[in-house]
Amino acid sequence: MTDFEYILQNAKLFHYKGWEEGELQKCLGMLPTLSREELAKLYRSKWINEKSKLKQNIFKILFKETVGKREERIKNLEIDALIEEFKDKKSGIVALIRKELRERYKANKDRAKIAAAFNSSTKSDQQWVTSQIRQERYGNTNHQLYNWKKS
User: Fold this and answer.
1) H helix intervals, the chain
2) Is it the case that residue 35 has pLDDT exceeding 80?
3) Is the dihedral of CA 25, 27, 30, 31 positive or negative?
């Protein structure tokens, strides 16, 4: 039995009752030995749940180069270009750009531009900027408020 057949057989077996950790780890270890075609067949298989570790790892192997290049490109973008892509909500990489903008904000890089971009974005982005400003001004107020209520 090939590695592909073994993984597929176990995927069918554990589809309804959930994976046993030992078998899952064994199958994850076999993934790098499979061809791209076999990985694609497994990825599209009805026996592998969308949220399973197996499917996530198959995706990472199939698109390793693409994902790495995308993250590297985002890290290397200038702040103005990054904000323009952040405003384009259909780009498909808004979550990655948001993460990068938050990291740059915390590192004291172009805070005013990032705050302006977040304030013109979603409510959660606006709340994040507000919480960051509040923490800078007053420290961790939730902890202080909790201690005040206890005494």
Assistant:
1) 3-14, 21-30, 36-44, 53-62, 64-76, 79-87, 94-106, 111-119, 123-138, 141-150
2) yes
3) negative
pLDDT single digits (tens) 101-149: 999 999 988 899 999 999 999 999 999 999 998 988 887 655 555 555 5
CA 63 to chain centre: 14
Q: 95 and 105 in contact (C-beta within 8 Å)?
A: no
- What is the secondary structure of 16-53 as a DSSP string? TT---HHHHHHHHHHGGGS-HHHHHHHHH-TTS-TT-H
Distance CA 44, CA 104 (A): 37
How many C-beta neighbours within 10 Å does residue 23 have?
15
Contacts of residue 51, defined as CB under 8 A and 6 or more positions apart, other chains included, come to: none
The verdict on pTM exceeding 0.70 is no
Mean pLDDT across the stretch 94-106?
91
